[in-house]
Write a structure and sequence with these properties.
Layout: H1 2-11, H2 27-47, H3 61-72, H4 79-88, H5 94-102, H6 106-112
């Protein structure tokens, strides 16, 4: 059931008009990204030993954690390359890899005060938690 929901989430993304992601093709990597982020965030919080992390340049430690994740996926594709990848690549395109998993993590909502109407908002009942 959880995997079906994750497939549906990623199949709802349309990187180019008329070109949607193949949630079944990318499922394994999407599970890895979602569970990896959940575990990494928990490990990060544990490393703080119950203390708040520092605020640097106006960003909390939680915000910087998620911004760091997003930065590693910065990429621009040419349309023909993106179309090719949508057919054969078991990885979701970078922007969807960055945003898809974190839209399921409560910690992301808390870090950025994400509210209904915000672009990445998903109701709590719709958030997928693998671990």
């Amino acid at each position: 059931k959880l995997t079906e929901r994750l497939v549906a989430q990623f199949e709802g993304y349309e990187p180019l008009p008329g070109r949607k992601l193949n949630g079944k093709l990318t499922l394994g990597e999407n599970i890895a990204d979602l569970s990896g982020m959940a575990i990494a965030y928990k490990a990060y919080r544990m490393s703080l030993g119950g203390k708040p992390g520092p605020v640097i340049d106006g960003y909390t430690s939680a915000q910087r954690f998620f911004l760091s994740w997003a930065q590693i996926w910065r990429r621009k594709y040419r349309d023909d390359e993106l179309i090719r990848r949508l057919v054969i690549d078991p990885h979701s395109p970078s922007s969807f890899r960055a945003n898809g998993p974190i839209s399921n993590l409560d910690a992301f909502y808390e870090a950025f005060d994400v509210q209904p109407g915000d672009k990445l908002y998903k109701p709590k009942a719709d958030r997928i938690q693998i671990w």
